[in-house]
Design goal:
Layout lengths: L2 H71 L9 H12 L5 E8 L28 H5 L1 H4 L2 H7 L1 E3 L3 E3 L4 E10 L8 E8 L1 H9 L6 E5 L4 E5 L9 E2 L15 E6 L5 E9 L4 E8 H4 L1 H16 L1 H30 L14 H92 L7 H25 L8 E3 L1 H11 L2 H6 L2 E6 L7 E3 L1 H18 L5 E8 L5 E7 L30 H11 L3 E7 L3 E9 L9
Parallel strand pairs: 13-15
Antiparallel strand pairs: 1-5, 2-4, 3-4, 4-5, 6-7, 6-11, 7-8, 9-10, 10-11, 12-14, 15-16, 16-18, 17-18
């Protein structure tokens, strides 16, 4: 044998053996890497599709939850909605989503409160949506298949999948509990949800080498991406699983399929709706790139040892690096980083796989962003709805308080006007006789103190009757004219005797803008109201003096506010809501009628204004009198 041949044989042997070994280990490494990558892909696909299924079911539950709140807002007071209103409401909810096959309202025992909403021939009216055709018997099955107890305990629940309708399509019951009215038993909104759209979604994700399946809680195939195997509710058994039981946790593994083909499969639950998504891919097709790589390695080794060794080493390193990148990217996606992108360096199968991977992550990222956007919108709608309900409730409560106080004052006024004449006639006689007796009676007469007491009590009765008549009279606008509130305040302070206030160690702090913007009213009535508040402040500060503050301000456009504050004893919180009630007083010495603040409230109300009080025990009390500036017939409401 020639030396050249020996060198060639030696070179081939030296290169072929290491190349064969390198090719063998490169194949094993590539096989493991691709296996891990495929498992990660299958797991990612299963998780993403399961998330989509859970999001769709959550959207259905959110729709029912939002509509139940709409039903609460349509009720008038505590009146329960009629069956006709409930039926219209159910029709409205039914057309919110095309997945609704039947929608009904039931009590906690499953008795319908109104005819359920469904369509027997929805295709006859395509403008109303593509709902599944249902019969009355199908609608009657809804409460029987609904998880009533679970929904009453957990507010929302889903039942088992079953076939219903004219097309025997898979259906699922979603039950939502809601409180119809206070102190009444809870009720349930039950919706038969069609799983046909999810089946269409799985078929849209169909690939030549992957099968996607939607499973119910009994591990039955509800829908599949394989158009040729659409067996209705076919049971599916997974490795280490129990027959008729859906796995509780995600997994990925290689196992024999139903037809005996060994596949790489992954499973992910769609919590909390007792559904799951499984994906299966034939192992032989998945490992096809490794097989081709082995043939290529043997081919090049047989042609040229040296060239094969160099090419195989380069190819092995190149493929390993790219496969590792693909596996790392797949793991990143499985961890939620959907913006992961692979760099496409070549136009071969690996490059196509990288492009497909990039397209998949882009699509998944867009889908997740859309789901998050819709979730934020729903949360914003819920918050806005809750805020509007709270605002309307506060406004209603304020209106009820004002109405109740006005009715109370009016009732007392009517009572006073009814008895005023009957009281004034005998009172005039008593008062006149007592005054005549005092005029003729000497100062040292022993009966004179008793007669003076009779006169004082008669005058007090006349003052009470006058206040009652004031409550019964609507004087707003009768003799009103433009009034400068600063002058009214000055006159009221002068009439309240500043010297007596100073003797009681009460300091007057006046912060009044003069002249004040004009208001329309009666200066005499406003003086009387301010004087009474000043008298109350003096009584509150009679123990040790204090500061009496009178301040005007413009809190808002077209409004003038007067604040009268003292640093006296203050009013207890439980007494504050009642201070404007007639005959209610917190004074320690009962020497008046208890009608003063009620009259003040009536005067302010007649002037189209509002009065409110703030107080802290031990720190003092503030009264806020707000009047509309003169612009025609402006009135505070």
């Amino acid at each position: 044998m020639k030396l050249r041949a020996k060198f060639m044989i030696t070179a081939v042997a030296v290169c072929a053996v290491p190349m064969a070994i390198a090719g063998y280990f490169a194949g094993r490494i590539g096989q493991d890497a691709i296996r891990r990558s495929i498992e990660a892909q299958e797991q990612t696909v299963a998780v993403q599709v399961a998330d989509y299924v859970a999001a769709e079911m959550a959207a259905v539950a959110d729709t029912l939850r939002v509509q139940s709140r709409v039903l609460d807002l349509t009720q008038k007071g505590t009146e329960a909605p009629t069956p006709e209103r409930l039926q219209k409401f159910l029709q409205f909810v039914y057309h919110q989503k095309e997945v609704f096959s039947v929608v009904g309202v039931y009590d906690e025992r499953g008795t319908p409160l109104a005819p359920p909403a469904f369509q027997e021939r929805p295709r006859d009216n395509a403008a109303l949506g593509r709902h599944d055709a249902m019969t009355a018997d199908d609608a009657a099955e809804v409460p029987k298949r609904a998880p009533l107890a679970e929904a009453l305990a957990h507010n929302v629940a889903t039942g088992e999948v079953f076939l219903a309708g004219r097309d025997a399509s898979p259906q699922l019951i979603v039950a939502l509990r809601y409180e119809p009215m206070p102190d009444e038993a809870p009720q349930l909104i039950l919706a038969m949800v069609s799983l046909r759209p999810l089946a269409r979604y799985l078929r849209e994700l169909e690939t030549a080498d992957r099968r996607l399946m939607l499973l119910d809680r009994a591990s039955r195939v509800v829908a599949s991406s394989d158009r040729e195997s659409q067996t209705a509710l076919e049971p599916r058994l997974f490795p280490n699983g129990l027959p008729g039981t859906l796995p509780e946790r995600p997994f990925v593994a290689a196992y024999p399929s139903q037809d005996g083909t060994r596949v790489v499969g992954a499973f992910a639950p769609a919590n909390p709706f007792h559904l799951g998504v499984a994906t299966e891919r034939p192992l032989s097709q998945a490992m096809e790139p490794v097989t081709r790589m082995g043939f290529a390695t043997v081919y090049w080794v047989s042609i040229s040892g040296v060239l094969a060794a160099l090419v195989a080493a380069w190819l092995g390193r190149n493929l390993s690096r790219r496969i590792i990148d693909l596996g790392s990217a797949a793991r990143a996606v499985s961890q939620g980083r959907l913006d992961t992108q692979l760099q496409v360096r070549t136009r071969d199968e690996i490059g196509d796989l990288a492009k497909a991977f990039n397209a998949m992550t882009t699509s998944l990222d867009a889908a997740r962003a859309e789901i998050l956007r819709q979730t934020r919108e729903i949360k914003n709608w819920n918050r806005n709805l809750e805020q509007r309900v709270a605002e309307k409730t506060r406004e209603l409560q304020q209106a009820q308080d004002v109405l109740l106080r006005s009715r109370s004052l009016a009732a007392i006024g009517v009572l006073g006007s009814g008895v005023a004449h009957e009281i004034n006639n005998p009172l005039a006689g008593v008062l006149g006789l007592s005054q005549l007796m005092l005029a003729d009676m000497p100062e040292d007469h022993p009966w004179r103190p008793m007669v003076e007491d009779v006169e004082g009590q008669a005058l007090r009765i006349r003052h009470i009757v006058a206040n009652l008549l004031r409550l019964s009279q609507r004087q707003a606008g009768e003799d009103f004219r433009l009034v400068d509130l600063s002058r009214v305040i000055d006159d009221a302070l002068e009439l309240a005797s500043p010297s007596s206030l100073a003797d009681a160690h009460i300091v007057i702090d006046k912060r009044v803008v003069s002249p004040s913007p004009p208001i329309r009213g009666s200066a005499f009535q406003l003086q009387a109201a301010i004087i009474h508040i000043i008298k109350n402040a003096r009584v509150a500060m009679e123990d040790g003096g204090g500061t009496l503050t009178l301040e005007t301000s413009l809190p808002a456009a077209k409004l003038l506010c007067l604040r009268v504050s003292d640093t006296g004893r203050g009013i207890k919180p439980e007494h504050l809501p009642r201070i404007f009630d007639p005959f209610f007083t917190t004074k320690q010495k009962w020497d008046e009628t208890g009608m003063g603040l009620a009259v003040v409230h009536k005067i302010v109300e007649d002037h189209g204004g509002q009065i409110r009080a703030e107080s802290r025990v031990g720190y003092g009390t503030s009264f806020f009198l707000t009047f509309p500036l003169d612009e025609g017939q402006a009135t505070l409401t």
